[in-house]
Amino acid sequence: METNEETNKIGISITGRPGIGKTTYALLLVEKLKSFHCKIKGFITKEIREGNNRIGFVVNDLSNNRQVILASKNINGKIKVGSYYLNEESFSFIINILKNINDSDVIVIDEIGPMELKINDFGKLLKNMIDKKPYIITFYYRLKELRPDIYNLLSKREIIELNFGNRNKYMEKVDQYAKMIRDAALCY
Fold first, then answer.
1. Is residue 21 included in any domain, yes or no?
2. What is the CATH number of the domain that holds 21?
3. First CA to last CA across the chain, in angstroms?
4. Cβ of 35: how many Cβ atoms within 10 Å?
5. DSSP H or E segment with residue 68
6. ∠ CA(109), CA(34), CA(173), 5° rounding?
7. Strand locations in 96-184, DSSP E?
8. pTM over 0.90
9. What's the Rg (C-alpha) of the chain?
10. Residue 1 in domain
11. Strand partners, 109
12. Structural domain harbouring 42
């Protein structure tokens, strides 16, 4: 498949406070893109809950639906972010996902946050792939402070900052954004 260098520069980044709907919005875009027959690779990070309590996060590989725990309050680990211990076995899982995106039409990374940034080579791999393919990326609302280099790369493309006041407006634009990414990825 031939791609135009400019079309690869399409990217949508989604940010906002925890719980605002970044992952939900990314998943809506992914489902729409799949209906256009786009090949999606990357990962989605979902919460692990016990009742109303968040106890951790699981990473889901979008190419094969394999999952691994990224972090939990209920595991022993050496690296702690907030009240969660990172599962260091998830690091190689995530790095392998990032290394195997070359044959995708669209890249999805959910999310770039303090936990993911603890992974060696995560930032380097991310920076190397941003201009290669159309993408959907969610990121931590304070990324600009943590990693201005990555934030500056993402800010060259569209950034959607979700909040309670604009969330419904953006939900109405899922089709528009998905078509923009589809056209850039040349998948129909």
1. yes
2. 3.40.50.300
3. 12
4. 10
5. strand 67-72
6. 75
7. 106-112, 135-140, 158-161
8. yes
9. 16
10. no
11. 43, 137
12. 7-185
Cα–Cα distance for residue pair 38/84, rounded to 1 Å: 34
What is the H or E stretch that residue 3 is in?
none
Instruction: Tell me which DSSP letter residue 36 carries.
Output: T
Query: Is-contact 145 114, C-beta < 8 A?
Result: no
In this structure, is residue 50 part of a structural domain? yes
3-47 pLDDT per residue, tens: 445 545 789 999 999 989 999 999 999 999 999 999 999 999 999
Instruction: Using DSSP bridges, classify how beta strands 84-86 and 80-81 pair: parallel, antiparallel or unpaired.
Output: antiparallel
What residues contact residue 61 under an 8 Å CB cut-off, 6+ apart? Answer: 43, 67, 93, 97
User: How far lies 3's CA from each of 62, 131, 132, 176, 183, in Å?
Assistant: 22, 12, 10, 21, 11
**Residue pLDDT, tens place only, 97-142:** 999 998 999 999 999 999 999 999 999 999 888 888 999 999 999 9
Between CA 57 and CA 142 the distance in angstroms is: 19
For residue 2, is it within any domain? no
Q: How far apart are CA 10 and CA 105, in angstroms?
A: 12
Structurally, the chain folds into a number of domains equal to: 1
